[in-house]
Amino acid sequence: xxxxxxxxxxxxxxxxxxxxxxxxxxxxxxxxxxxxxxxxxxxxxxxxxxxxxxxxxxxxxxxxxxxxxxxxxxxxxxxxxxxxxxxxxxxxxxxxxxxxxxxxxxxxxxxxxxxxxxxxxxxxxxxxxxxxxxxxxxxxxxxxxxxxxxxxxxxxxxxxxxxxxxxxxxxxxxxxxxxxxxxxxxxxxxxxxxxxxxxxxxxxxxxxxxxxxxxxxxxxxxxxxxxxxxxxxxxxxxxxxxxxxxxxxxxxxxxxxxxxxxxxxxxxxxxxxx
Length: 274
What we know:
The protein is an all-alpha fold. It has a single domain, classed as MetI-like (MetI-like fold). The radius of gyration is 23 Å and the shape is globular. The longest helix has 38 residues, at 167-204. Helix 2 crosses helix 10 (223-251), helix 3 packs across helix 6 and helix 8 runs parallel beside helix 9. It is 85% helix and 0% strand. It has helices at residues 2-35, 46-55, 57-89, 93-105, 111-122, 126-150, 154-162, 167-204, 210-219, 223-251, 253-273.
């Protein structure tokens, strides 16, 4: 009974603050547009946006599915590339010195300069969109995983070496457990970036998808419908972020519980200090 009550309080503490904040923002937005007599073409009220979402639900679902497929495929390959590069870079100091600077340089190349070339090379199919998503998303995964592999306890690594453990055994027993929390932190950032990458890729060259739909509605000056698409994209990003968080909780229960314990301990210290 006590455990169930504690779990309920944790869920309420996690859900209620952002929910109440969202209600406050939407209420203030609605009040501002009504009291300020703001034109719908400038800033539509949330009620009109909700109405547009409902009336255009079939169109939104159809194009959302296209964008979701691009995001999931690009996100998957971003994970493979990011984790693969991190493991390769941490395999030796020489490899790290050779590759890591170029990993940073890759993020200095503007995607708008590359995306048109991808359209020329691969056409208007899914491949260029997936590549853009990968290029946008893999960096936080790689950097966080590298930091996680570095965070392995030196004492544990030395102990494993003393026990004649090979490189794979040291990686599996020491480096991988240390890197997983960092990896999931990178995945959460990459989840948001993948949605942005998908929209931008569809802006450059697409005939369907939510990003393409925004361009069409922009040309028609359909502001309310554009906000409906933006809200749909935001929902996709939130769901992907929550999916990563759920996987983190399922795969790293020890890490999740330790964070909860630390949070409760800090809360108790604050209460005692007060």
